[in-house]
Design brief:
Blueprint lengths: L1 E4 L2 E4 L5 E4 L2 E4 L5 E4 L7 E4 H13 L2 H11 L11 H10 L5 H10 L24 H7 L1 H15 L4 H69 L6 H15 L5 H13 L9 E2 L2 E2 L2 H23 L5 H16 L6
Antiparallel strand pairs: 1-2, 3-4, 5-6, 7-8
């Protein structure tokens, strides 16, 4: 079968007979064909693939045929030219210390002939001549990349990927340790806050205890003297009472504790001396003793309430929340 084209009469690529030099010859596709794309490995394709590619070359434009041939011949292991991975492979595997190992790796992988391949010159398994390692790395880029990758992985040196990991290692380590850092910071902050609150609680307790002790001592002494003499000196009670009021004024939140401290300060007994007369008549010893006992009970009750102000902040926070809920409840007094 013959076809006409702008280049003349040619034989059909799909089969038939043509006349050449007066003789009739049958077109027999070869059992295998060698396609040598530029800077790529030599690949042997089956006869059916060669026939299909030939048909594409005749029917399609030459540019499309070239693209299809290069796509079919692209090596599976070759890194893109100019990439970091490609540069690392060239520098590492063509180094003097690794050339012998590279040749041995390529021989084991069946990429180089073992009888004639040395670090000074190699011969690929494909039917081509002897060449240097540098030429083999360029002309058979896929085979070189495959052997070099295997060598780097086997020797555990692989400087390519680890170098990138080292660049990102500090950031990955930071992200890994970030939860631990956050927990540590929270624990440190919580410890500092707890220590500060405990210190404030101890200081408040010391001030309240000192004020309670001084006021109790002064009140007992005054009441005992009042039972015998209605004009007993009240000065010591005034001094101790003012000191206790100062300690109550320094009581901090929560709100329920501040309100309780203010209430105790307003109700603290013995603001003034007890009276010596009532209803225009002088109070006798029995009446003064009765009044003294009542005031003494009142003093002890208020001082016990003052000591309760030193309870933990959690207790007073709950009291504060409960007081707010009670005020906001429907029907609560405004």
């Amino acid at each position: 079968m013959r076809q006409k084209s702008r280049h003349g009469t040619v034989a059909s690529p799909l089969g038939g007979r043509v006349k050449g030099g007066g003789a009739t010859a049958a077109i027999r596709p070869p059992a295998a064909a060698v396609i040598r794309p530029p800077a790529a490995a030599v690949i042997r394709l089956p006869a059916a693939t060669v026939i299909a590619l030939s048909a594409v070359a005749v029917i399609a434009s030459p540019a499309v045929a070239v693209v299809a041939s290069l796509g079919a011949a692209a090596p599976a292991f070759a890194a893109s030219p100019g990439s970091t991975e490609r540069d690392v492979q060239l520098v590492y595997c063509l180094d003097t210390a690794h050339r012998g190992d590279l040749v041995s790796a390529a021989v084991r992988l069946g990429l180089l002939r073992p009888d004639v391949s040395t670090p000074d010159g190699v011969k690929p398994v494909a039917p081509v001549g002897r060449m240097s390692l540098e030429s083999w790395a360029v002309r058979h880029e896929g085979d070189f990349a495959r052997a070099c990758t295997a060598l780097m992985a086997a020797s555990s040196d692989a400087p390519g990927a680890p170098a990138e990991k080292k660049q990102d290692g500090w950031f990955e380590a930071f992200l890994t340790s970030l939860p631990l850092l956050a927990v540590g910071a929270l624990l440190t902050l919580g410890g500092q806050i707890s220590e500060r609150l405990a210190s404030e609680r101890r200081l408040l307790g010391q001030q309240l205890d000192a004020g309670v002790t001084a006021f109790r001592t002064a009140a007992r002494a005054y009441l005992a003297a009042y039972e015998a003499d209605p004009q007993a000196d009240h000065t010591a009670v005034v001094t101790a009472r003012e000191a206790l009021l100062g300690a109550l004024a320094q009581v901090a939140g929560p709100g329920a504790r501040r309100e309780r401290a203010q209430s105790l300060a307003d109700r603290l007994p013995l603001e003034r001396p007890l009276p010596g007369a009532r209803g225009g008549s002088l109070l006798g010893t029995a009446a003064r003793a009765r009044d003294a006992r009542e005031v003494r009970r009142s003093v002890e009750g208020e001082l016990r309430a003052v000591s309760e102000l030193n309870r933990r902040a959690l207790y007073w926070r709950w009291r504060t929340v409960r007081a707010r809920l009670t005020r906001q409840a429907p029907g609560a007094a405004v």
